[in-house]
Every structure is written in C-alpha cells, then in structure tokens.
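Quick one before lunch.
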Amino acid sequence: MTATNLLDLDLDGLAAFCESLGEKRFRATQLFRWIHQRGASDFEQMSDLAKSLRGKLAGCATVTGLPVLTQQESADGTIKWLFDVGNGDAVEAVFIPEDDRGTLCVSSQAGCAVGCRFCSTGHQGFSRNLSTGEIVAQLWFAEHFLRRHLGRDERVISNVVMMGMGEPLQNYGALVPALRTMLDDNAYGLSRRRVTVSTSGVVPMMDRLGADCPVALAVSLHAPNDALRDDLVPLNRKYPLAELMSACKRYLEPAPRDFITFEYCMLDGVNDQPEHARQLIELVRTSGVSCKFNLIPFNPFPASGLLRSPAPRVQAFARQVADAGIVTTVRKTRGDDIDAACGQLAGDVKDRTRAAERMAERRVVMMRKAESPPADRQPVGEAAR
Ligand code: SAH
Ligand code: SF4
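Model of the iron/sulfur cluster complex:
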C-alpha cells in the first residue's frame, strides 16, 4: 500500500482518514494544525498525539512537500520558487509582499490546455493536472519558509491568488479541497475574500465553484467581442461572452465579494484602442455584471509575436473605462527582474533536457544576481491582487 500524503486531504478528508485508522475526528484537527499551522512533517514531533497514533501514521502516511529546484528573490522583495513535480515538469509560485498584505500566486497545472496567445504557460501546452497536495504544498512551503526567512511568528501570507500556471477550473477536483484547506481556521484561515480563483471562463465550473466553495473570482476577459476573444482566448469558442457574462452574474449571488474582477491584458494594437474600451463598457452595461477592471500591461515573451501597449495608451484606456463609472486599476509589475510577472511563469514542461539546461541557466543568473545589484528596470505587472 502506498502511503497517503496528508497534504492531499482537507479537514474532512483527514477526518475520514483518521476514522479509517480507528481514531476520533478531533485527532484529525490536531494533526491538521500540526501540518498546516506549524509546518510539521515529522509525526514524532507532534507531541500531543498519542504515541500509538504517531506509530500508525508513520506506517501509512507522509507529509511530503515538493522539491524546490530554484528560488529567486527580486530586488523588490518578490520571491519565486520553481518546484519539481516529476517527469521533467516544474511549476512556479510567487510571493509578493506589500505593506498591508502578503500574496502568494499559486499554480494549478503543469502547463495549460487553454492556449491563450499572450501567455507563456499556454504556449507550452498541457502536461498534467496538479494534485491537491501539490497545490497545497506551494502554500505550505512558502508560508513556513517565509516565517523562518523573515523571522516572524505570525502568518505571513494573507492572500492567495490562483494566477500561476494553469487553468484552475480545468482541475476542479483537486482545486476545491485545496481551497478548503486554505480557508480552514485550523490550517491557513484565509478569508474567502482573500482567496481568488482566476479563470479564462470555464462556465460550468464557475457555477460549481459558486455552489461548492465560493471565493473571490477574477475572470480573464482580454477582449470586448467574440471575434477577438476567440482568437486570444480559444476557450471563448466553447463559452462565448454572452454565456460568460451570465455565469459572472450568477456567481455574484453566492460570492463573498460583490464584484467580479475582470483582467484585461493590454496588447499593442490588438485590444487597446478606444473602440475596444467603448465595446467593453457596452458589454458590462448590457450584462449588468458588477465588476472592477484590472488592466495588465502585457509581459512580452518572444514566441508570442505580441507587444506591450505603450503606457500612455494603457492610461487612456483606463481613463475611458473609469469615466464610464467602472472602477479600473492598472496592475503594477512586480518581480520582473526574475521573470515572476504575470504570464512569465514558464516552469519547464515536457522536455527534460531543455529543462535541465534552463535550470542551469537560471542558476547562473541567480549567481550573477548575488554578485551585483540588479540594474534599473522598467516597472512591470504584479502577479496578484
Ligand atoms: N488560467 C487562469 C489563471 C492563470 S493566468 C487565467 O487565465 O485566468 C493569470 C493571469 O495572467 C490571467 O489574467 C492571464 O490572462 C494573465 N497573463 C497571462 N499571460 C500574460 C502575459 N504575458 N502578460 C500579462 N498577463 C498575462
Ligand atoms: Fe492558461 Fe490562463 Fe495562460 Fe490562458 S492565460 S493559457 S488560461 S494559464
């Protein structure tokens, strides 16, 4: 029998597991707290559990995180980790510190099947879904690493955004127990308003999320009409804008926030014209979805063939949408010196040789960064809100 990785279980799952060992439910709560609140992985450390239980657990369970391949720290305090998920696949998580919060941007898949034109993860194709344990392991590791790194006793990560690699709503079965663990007071105790699922618009799963585990929702819109969105976000061909906007409206009923955040990646000459802003305003008005806009300056990568909209055009677009009475922000870019900004999370999918080369390149870059302070850089987008 293979050992059960307890990071795969939310509290209900852990209770069922404990019951299968003939233990009472409250033991699961104790165990859950040791793992998630204290970062423990060694059952012998869990001093308030009976010795007999510790022995049983050692025989059939583990608490196994993900191996860290690299860690890069940006001059602005942003930290990016590359985690090994086996078979040449790796995924990234990014910590973004701000004065009033600490946000972790978490991956849900190795690669992504949606294939958006402007996204480096999408260009790699899909490798596989992460398990619940692999999603939770990113938070488990980051939270406890950061407490040690920053010398803090209390919680460091206050917000999680599912905006790393992958489409979370195409990995629904693994996502929901991971979200439950994030929200659980016996684990990370995050507020539903501070856990955000970002989706390219998997309509049926938006409804299920609203019913099963409502959290804040961000929808990656990127285009104000179906023709353009079909091209930029291929999933639009399956769930076109009218359906997507209706799903947003339905989601607002159970949602912990009274608005949807629409993300809109600003692509030079593609979706950034006054006419696009006009259509966007019209789309929001006719659908009646209460929303905020977050404009993301595109973070270019060579294979995309796309360019970032010039800053004055982003500002003009933002003003036009804001003047129509829709709250609009432009995302600041964080961590761009370590390729941690939105859409730059590439991980290393499929090709083992290439993965090894890239990791070696990254190590060289890290060493260079350690030798000399990073050069001045243009601000770029932040991975999270
Ligand atoms: N798959 C989900 C979540 C991950 S992507 C989604 O698409 O919503 C997180 C955000 O980063 C999305 O809004 C996405 O559109 C944006 N993004 C992707 N590539 C980008 C790039 N190259 N520059 C800026 N933002 C990008
Ligand atoms: Fe997938 Fe999101 Fe990237 Fe689109 S933007 S390819 S949905 S990760």
